[in-house]
Amino acid sequence: MTEPILKLEGVCKNFGGLKALTDVSFALAPGEVVGLIGPNGAGKTTLVNVVTGKLPASTGRILFEGKDVAAQKPHEAARRGLARTFQIVQPFPQMTVIENVTAGALFGGGAASVGDARDMARKSLDFVGLAPLADRPAAQLALAARKRLELAKSLAMQPKVLMLDEVNAGLNSSEIDGALALIRKIAESGVTVLIIEHLMKVVLSLSKRLLVLHHGQMIADGPAKEIVADERVIEAYLGQKYAARLKELHHA
Amino acid sequence: MPEPRLDPLLELAGVTSGYGQIQVLWGMDLAVHSGEVVALVGSNGAGKSTLLRTISGQLAPREGTIRFDGRAIGGAKPDAVLTAGIAHVPEGRRLFRGLTVRDNLLLGAYLRTDKDDIARDLAWVFELFPILAERQRQDATTLSGGEQQMCAVGRGIMSRPKLLMIDELSLGLSPRMVEHLGEALIQLNKAGQTILLVEQDVMTAFELSHRAYIMENGRVTRAGASTELMADPTVSEAYLSI
Amino acid sequence: QETIKIGAPLALTGGLADEGHKQDLVWKMWVEKVNAAGGLAVGDKKMKVELIEYDYQSEGQRASQLAEKLINDDKVQFLFAPFGSGHTKIVGGVGERYQVPTIACVASSESVFDQSLKHLFGTLSPNGGMTTAMVKMFKEKFPDTKTIAVLGRDDVFPKSMAEGIAKAAEAQGLTVAYKELYPVGTMDHAAALSSIKAAKPDWIYVSGYTQDLILARKQMQDLGVTAPIVTMVTGPSYKEFTEGLGKLADGITSSSWWHHATNYTGQGVWPTTADFYKDFQAKTKGADPDYVHGSCAAAGEVIAEALKRTGSLDKAKLRDAIASTDIQTFYGPIKFGPTGMNLPRELPIIQVQDETIKVLAPADIKNAELIAMPK
Amino acid sequence: MRSGPLAYALLAVGILVLASTPLYADNYVVRTAAIVAMYGALATSWNFIGGFTGYPSFSTAAFFGLGCYVGAICQRAGVPMVLAWLIATLMVGAFAALLGAIILRLKGHYFAIGSIAVVEVCRLIVSSWSSLTGGGDGLNLPLLTWGPEQVMRFFLFVMLAILILSLIATALVDRSRLGFGLRCIHQNEDAAAMVGIDTTRYKVAAYTLSAVFCAAAGAAYASWTGYIDPTESFQILMTVKVPVMAMLGGAGTLAGPFLGAAAFVLLEEVFWANFLDWNRAILGVVIVLLVFFLPGGLLSLARKRSAGGPA
Amino acid sequence: MAIYSQILANGLMLGALYACLAVGFSLVWGVLNVINMLHGSFIILGGYLTWFAWHGWGIHPIVMLPVVGALLFALGFALQKLVINRVVSAPVLTTLTLTFGLDMILYNVMTYWFTATPRRVQLDLGAVSLGPVTLPVDRLVGTALALVLTLALYAVMRGSNIGRAIVAVRMDRSAAELMGIRTERIYAITFGIGALMAGVAGVVFASVFPITTNVTGTYLGKAFVVCVVGGLGSVPGALVGGLVLGLVESLAGHWFGPQQAITAGFVLMLAILLTRPTGLVGVRGYE
Ligand SMILES: Nc1ncnc2c1ncn2[C@@H]1O[C@H](COP(=O)(O)OP(=O)(O)OP(=O)(O)O)[C@@H](O)[C@H]1O
Ligand SMILES: Nc1ncnc2c1ncn2[C@@H]1O[C@H](COP(=O)(O)OP(=O)(O)OP(=O)(O)O)[C@@H](O)[C@H]1O
Ligand SMILES: [Mg+2]
Ligand SMILES: [Mg+2]
């Protein structure tokens, strides 16, 4: 059993009286691809925010490569190799696509100079297939391209753990297929990936293991097949109709 | 009196539109009849939201005509379009922060002056979405994503539109929530509401609608009864895989 | 034909606009009168006077900028400094650098003149003269006066008055029961006045500009703060003060540098105070001049005298001639001390009685007795 | 901020014109040139925080005023003039860094208010700390004993030097990691932090840079006029005027703030010389028109011409 | 102890005036994202109109209240409709530059016509005593008016369609359009209301303080502080901010002398900015 790369122990986060996360614990092994699902408002985005230092945890430990990083700032997380994408995409709108990615390489990816960073950025644009749009201002991109830009930026930061917060929401089926291939490629390069998504197609086709958050609590953690059959998960998240549809597919 | 069954409630012919120098719609034809649920599906950036914005008056069409309820409404301002009877539930819910759920719903009735009817419609929205009644004094943006979507739809209903246009009903919602909202829409339609639904999740869209249009690059490429389209192998290949 | 050019950076807009307009008014009156008489005598020929004014918008930086413009672009031979000690210092500094004689008509703080500006001359007497005599007189008339409360604006002149009166009062055996400064931009005096009320002083002394004083008087009334003597410096010297307060101004005492009730005779375009008063009333349709008007109108005579005596436009000679000025004017004697300030003289103490200004001292122009504040 | 050759040419011409005024013009023109250089330095300085980083800072007058006071107090204590300026620059820089670490936690509107409050608080503290600052009486500084021409030239070159230093700093920052990071922060601060930019440190650096040149200019200005007081040194008007200048020229560009400052000072010059009663209103009208017709600043004129059609 | 009841009364009365002074500014800033540099001049304009009516024709300020309110509403509405709306969605620095320019014009016009002479409406209504506390009648009436007007505005904002529309436009302009709200009109109405509140504050102020154009900057500064202390863009925020500021200044003036009173206000403001940037009762969302 390898040492987990990211481990949460009893993490809680409160907003005033609201308990957004209660006693959340789990661990990710290096290179693993794990899905995180849960109803709207369950606390998924909050979890990412806490792990990346955007929000301070109220209590609990966050271990990254064995070190407690609960008190880190976002930029420290980025430099350590903890990258994330935003549920609502956050580009630097007036900058070109390549500049956006260069920022990732320069500050998060440890590039020595702006020139080096540019080279790294180019590679990561090639990787996600955005190279043709490199000189467009980010604001002009359509949604799918913006989501790719988020990915490219995160990749340029040379992350060890990548947290994807609904990168596929709003994409249609064929676009999703492209995105899936891309994420698989990233995972194959050894990056640990945590996928947050409401599209079960994406979650199921990428991850063998699923975590389920509900009202800020981790109600299930285990192999995907078992999880989608779990009554609590169906009750809280999938709904009977959808679960039935899934089961049908499994039989087919 | 025109025959309501035959004459479409909303009719677009050859509409083009866009932003500044970017043209997005390249000659859209589309019709919605009274009492129908019509779905509009298509790839990302096809121009679905742009189409709804053009209908609701946030964008002016550059060419073509938009007729609603027998009148041309192309180029009218949003308040005029709303008065004519079209409500637009925008992509991403766009509830007003700092206002309660109830105030948000009442803003849907901003242009209406019939106090008693407004109260009745509010009660009807609360009946349709009981959770909103429970939360009516809460700041709307503290609702969960699904509840916000209900509130947005409810706000659309509050203008008592002849046509309700909903953009991206299921975006970012849990499967269970999508199911729940779908049921609510069917209930609404049964009560006589005409609906134009833009939906990324094609399966859901076809299930909820009578007819559907498929859009690509600012044009309609396919149209027909939803059940037929769903059965069409070319369509299911391109748009349906679980 | 050559003219004599006098430059004046003035505050025609901004906080000091009213004062600026007063200066503008009487200087123009003086120039008109001088030119109507053919001009000023320089030796044996007469030269017309030209007054060049710019609005410095009550901003010190701009005042110094405009002073330089006047000297460099307009080639003025003399400068009139603007209102107030602070801005006088700034303009005086510029005059000094270019060795252009500068006449300050409305700066009374000694700190302005103690920085060895050799080209700056002030027609007001030191304001030290306003405190000691006042304490002495009030103590004499109202022997029960034991305590004083002082509230002063934190600005060059009002602050030095507040500090001066406190010192003079202590020196003559009074107790200073309250002494605070309020900052520029104070909107409300209620807190300070409530504290003063609690201290129950026999004499309340407030210094500041007209608008501060109107507010302070009004709030004293509202909050029931009274004392047998209430002094507001230099409130009653200004008609804006008495007009703004109406009945409420009654009983308020103050000191001033000049009052039109005085009767001086001297040289220049207005040989007597009455002459000036008459012209002024004609010009303003019946308004009364205050010390700003008087001091500024007399300042021109300093220049006239120096030109007459030197008979040339040589700057250095003119400067020396001004330094040795010793003349009588309708405004009173002007003779500069070693720092360039007009010599101390007995300054008028005034009081508002029945909404008009009465002079309590000095004895020769006195036309009323000190009365206690009406209850 | 892509500064083309045009910007550099404009700058060079501008600086040369200012520097050469003593050759052909009278002292007053030289003085105006020095004031242009001074405001140019202030606006260029503001650009670090306001232009690059996009934080609406109104602290300029605080730094300027503190510069005046630190310089004056040092000089009165016998420190040689230039050394006093240096001390003022360093001390105010350190102060800005400390202050920045506190108020840069605020964003948008709140930062704007915080930064403007700093000016007021500094003014109030300076005016109530009479033992050190002379309070409302102000402070006198030793006047230079040279002739007026020499003094004027000297201060023209001092102000020009500060301006040039601020421009060089701008050009350097523009090309560096710091500049890149600041522009990222301008565009989207959350995202900037997420790509690994230490936003706090970067912002503090920008804020400090925006202070040091103001402090230097303030200290030099105090020596130049020879008398300072709290109301003149901490002018709210200056704090609003400097960003307005930068906006007029083009915020976030290399040459814009300087050009805006030059235009503003010259316009003021023309108006109050020619319209005694209405100078303020006329300047107001000019500002309103500029906002309408040149929202991107004066530089956008030049850019429009050189850029040609849409890309 | 008597002195403290007086000090508290002073503080509350002053605070209500501060609230009245700031509420329009806060609204315009919060809703339109415009830092309205004209606000101080609007107040003085309202004050001068009152003074001239009183001085020239003996019209009582109470009568002028609706008149001045209507005039300033019209002025604000027109300014926004014709001028500011053209750049209203530009960054805050641009609109600030614009209102700064407009204020230079208005200020110049006012000093030219009215001069800088301090004017005062000499109502001199005397004072009433409540035990050890003396309450000036005019200020008491002013305080009551300030409170009533502020609360009236609050009622409008909370309960009426226009109020909801104003909040909606502030939060999401394009979604508001979809509700049939004509956003430009709402902007103009909001700016008009801001000017109206400034105008009526001017009426109250002219009856209580001497007014002159010199104090426009002071008023603006107070409005800033009140907004921050209470919270930007909300009526209760301005009310709470005004009252707290009035109390703090009053107490600090008593304890540390008037010189420190204003400093105390600013220190309070900085402290609140740093610990609770949204103000004491503010809502989030103006970052
Ligand atoms: N900054 C905040 N302040 C107060 N409450 C917050 C804040 N951020 C999130 N919340 C609340 O915390 C809860 C969890 O939100 P979160 O965004 O983590 O949900 P989520 O699981 O990502 O939901 P979704 O699937 O809709 O994106 C919600 O009730 C939300 O309203
Ligand atoms: N405000 C805008 N300015 C410029 N271009 C825009 C704007 N909004 C959308 N676009 C462009 O118009 C095109 C169509 O966008 P639209 O939002 O209508 O697509 P859509 O079909 O609704 O897609 P989605 O499924 O992502 O919602 C896209 O290429 C997009 O980049
Ligand atoms: Mg989320
Ligand atoms: Mg869309």
Automatic annotation (TrEMBL), chain A:
Residues 6-240 form the ABC transporter domain. GO terms for molecular function: ATP binding. Gene3D superfamilies: P-loop containing nucleotide triphosphate hydrolases (3.40.50.300). The keyword Transport applies. Keywords: ATP-binding, Nucleotide-binding, Transport. It comes from the Bacteria. The keyword Iron-sulfur does not apply. Pfam families: ABC_tran, BCA_ABC_TP_C. PANTHER family: AMINO ACID ABC TRANSPORTER ATP-BINDING PROTEIN, CONSERVED COMPONENT OF ABC TRANSPORTER FOR NATURAL AMINO ACIDS-RELATED. This is ABC transporter ATP-binding protein. The lineage of its organism: Bacteria, Pseudomonadati, Pseudomonadota, Alphaproteobacteria, Hyphomicrobiales.
Automatic annotation (TrEMBL), chain B:
Residues 10-242 form the ABC transporter domain. This is ABC transporter ATP-binding protein. SMART domains: AAA. It comes from the Bacteria. Keywords: Amino-acid transport, ATP-binding, Nucleotide-binding, Transport. Pfam families: ABC_tran. One of its GO terms (molecular function) is ATP binding. InterPro entries: AAA+_ATPase, ABC_transporter-like_ATP-bd, BCAA_Transport_ATP-bd_LivF, P-loop_NTPase. Belongs to the ABC transporter superfamily. The keyword Nucleotide-binding applies. SUPFAM superfamilies: P-loop containing nucleoside triphosphate hydrolases.
From TrEMBL, chain D:
The chain crosses the membrane at residues 84-104, 152-173, 204-224, 244-267, 279-302. Keywords: Cell membrane, Membrane, Transmembrane, Transmembrane helix. It comes from the Bacteria. It is a multi-pass membrane protein. It holds the Pfam family BPD_transp_2. InterPro entries: ABC_transp_permease, LivM-like. It is found in: Cell membrane. PANTHER family: HIGH-AFFINITY BRANCHED-CHAIN AMINO ACID TRANSPORT PROTEIN BRAE, HIGH-AFFINITY BRANCHED-CHAIN AMINO ACID TRANSPORT SYSTEM PERMEASE. This is Branched-chain amino acid ABC transporter permease.
From TrEMBL, chain E:
It is a multi-pass membrane protein. Pfam families: BPD_transp_2. Keywords: Amino-acid transport, Cell membrane, Membrane, Transmembrane, Transmembrane helix, Transport. The chain crosses the membrane at residues 12-32, 52-79, 91-114, 140-157, 186-211, 223-248, 255-274. It is found in: Cell membrane. InterPro entries: ABC_transp_permease (IPR001851), BCAA_transport_permease (IPR052157). CDD domains: TM_PBP1_LivH_like. Belongs to the binding-protein-dependent transport system permease family. LivHM subfamily. This is Branched-chain amino acid ABC transporter permease. It comes from Ancylobacter oerskovii.
